[in-house]
Amino acid sequence: MDLVELERRAAARLPQHVYDYMRATAGGSEVLERQIAEWDAIRLRPRVLTGATPPATATTVLGTPVAAPILVAPMAQQVDAHPDGERATAAGARAAGSLLGVSTNTAVPFARIAEGGAPWWFQLYVTRDRRLSTALLERAVAAGAGAVLLTVDITRLRHPRAGASVSVEPTDWTDGRTGARLANLTEEELRIARGEGGRGDRGLGVDAITWIREVTGLPVVVKGVLRGDDAARAVDAGAASVLVSTHGGRGLASSVGSAAVLAEVVSAVGGRAEVYADSGIRSGLHAAAGLAIGARAVFVGRPVMWGLAADGAAGVTTVLEALRDELVGAMDLLGASTVADLTPDLVAPR
Ligand SMILES: Cc1cc2nc3c(=O)[nH]c(=O)nc-3n(C[C@H](O)[C@H](O)[C@H](O)COP(=O)(O)O)c2cc1C
């Protein structure tokens, strides 16, 4: 898939400030480029003479069947990319047999997103005033969310042109970029959200996992883990999965990349929970490498956003299907008939 061309088409359709926001990292563009390069640098050891049948990519994540272990990362305010926003993303994901994360900062009502027909997981930023988070969680459950992605990393974007930090709070309730209104809060809740109570809870501990499980009855995926010890603590506290992520380079500029720490996290979790990875996944080869190291699935962010901006739901489907086709090609060359055959021995030691 020609992602450079797709991004160019998306950029041509997006207002400059929206494109800049989507592309932004915690530093310059080199932050994300370095992380993509780390996926590229993984060397694979193909198996031959296996008698392997043509590869099948179908699997499950937390029991939900998906056509391939390539899922859509939660991204804020997709109405900036396409008028139907997350509803179009959901329809595109459904056509590809995939699943999507839905950001706390969506301007589309959960029920409309659910109409798109794809399984979806609600992404939560816990607020200082927990009433806001509770309300969102309850509404997500009512609309059919299958799990909660609890985002625990902290983002700080740098403006790609000005070079200065733009303070984008994780809970950007008013959305100064477009004025889009967050659709899943009442007027009264939005009033609270615009004050101190709407800011991210910086004092979050592992007890948040128990609390979310109690409020929702759903499995909790902890998103933004980059260390084995943190992953183990999250799982000990009841997390069903951990998502190894640098928030697409939007967290700490000089942080380690997901590719570099995935094996450590897989080992620390020791099969007690599912492990996923995102940040810099740009090809089926990257996905194959992540799965071989031990991820159950990978999430993809910006490429899906570019597909959405360029071609709406169809663009989302095209990106997901192209990645899946590339994964099939990689599995074929690696001698893997199913995703379970993607095992750590396929990865060369460093
Ligand atoms: C425009 C944009 C908005 C995002 N919004 C959120 C968000 O609201 N919540 C969240 O947990 N992660 C958010 N992320 C991070 C993604 O979920 C994911 O971790 C990241 O995009 C993966 O990296 P990639 O873009 O290199 O694939 C956002 C990323 C982008 C690019």
Largest sheet: 8 strands, parallel
Beginning-to-end CA distance, first to last residue: 28 Å
Count up the helices. 12
Q: What is the overall shape?
A: globular
Approximately what portion of the residues adopt beta-strand conformation?
Answer: 5-15%
What is the CATH third-level topology name?
TIM Barrel
Please state the CA-atom Rg, rounded to the nearest Å.
19 Å
Description:
The chain is of the alpha/beta class and 350 residues long. It has a single domain (3-343), classed as Aldolase class I (TIM Barrel). The chain is built from twelve helices and twelve strands. The protein has helices spanning 3-13, 16-23, 30-40, 85-95, 110-115, 130-142, 187-193, 207-216, 228-236, 258-269, 284-293, 302-334, and strands at residues 59-61, 64-66, 70-72, 100-102, 120-124, 148-151, 157-158, 165-166, 220-225, 241-244, 274-277, 297-300. An eight-stranded parallel sheet has the order 3-12-11-10-9-6-5-4. Strands 1-2 form a two-stranded antiparallel ribbon. The chain has a two-stranded antiparallel sheet with strand order 7-8. Strand 9, helix 9 and strand 10 form a beta-alpha-beta unit. Helix 1 (3-13) runs antiparallel to helix 12 (302-334) and helix 11 (284-293) crosses helix 12. Residues 167-171 and 173-179 have low confidence and may be disordered. Residues 22, 32, 73-76, 103-105, 123, 151, 223, 245, 247-248, 278-281, 300-302, 305 line the site of flavin mononucleotide.
